[in-house]
Amino acid sequence: MPRAKNNVASRKRRKKTMDMAKGYWGSRGTVYTVAKHSVEKGLQHAYADRKAKKRTFRKLWIARINAAARANGTTYSRLIHGMKEKGITINRKVLANLAVENPAAFKEVVDFVLK
């Protein structure tokens, strides 16, 4: 019986990996076995960094809210606690944007919470 190598699928799989490795330096972008390892590692970093991005932005929003809250005579902790008690459900992303782009509106929120 003749041997079937499945060239079409094999070539497609290798081509996909090599296309993903375009722009890599040296043999990482030209040699399949090296490129395969580089692409796999790159995809692992991409997955992990999508998760890390969420943590990084949350830290940034909290820092901005805290700075604006302190400028209005309170702290981040007291502000968030007061918002929970009053039933205000503005998320940190929107609150941080409000603090940066519209300090007057942020001050109104702080004043309402501290009453």
Element pattern in H and E:
HHHHH
Q: Please report which band the strand proportion falls in: under 5%, 5-15%, 15-25%, 25-35%, 35-45% or over 45%.
A: under 5%
CATH class: Mainly Alpha
Helical segment count: 5
Mean pLDDT, to the nearest integer, reads 95
Helicity range of the residues? over 70%
- Quote the CATH topology: c-terminal domain of poly(a) binding protein
Indicate the radius of gyration in whole angstroms.
Answer: 26 Å
Global geometry: rod-shaped
CATH architecture descriptor text? Orthogonal Bundle
Can you walk me through this structure?
The protein has 115 residues and is mainly alpha-helical. The protein has helices at 7-20, 32-71, 76-86, 92-101, 103-114. Helix 2 crosses helix 4 (92-101). The model has no long low-confidence stretch (mean pLDDT 95).
Topology:
Elements: H1 7-20, H2 32-71, H3 76-86, H4 92-101, H5 103-114
Helix pairs in contact: 1-2, 2-4, 4-5
What keyword list fits this structure?
rod-shaped; 5 helices; mainly alpha; 115 residues; c-terminal domain of poly(a) binding protein; 0% strand
Brief characterization of the structure:
The chain is an all-alpha fold. Helix content is 76%, strand content 0%. Helix 2 crosses helix 4.
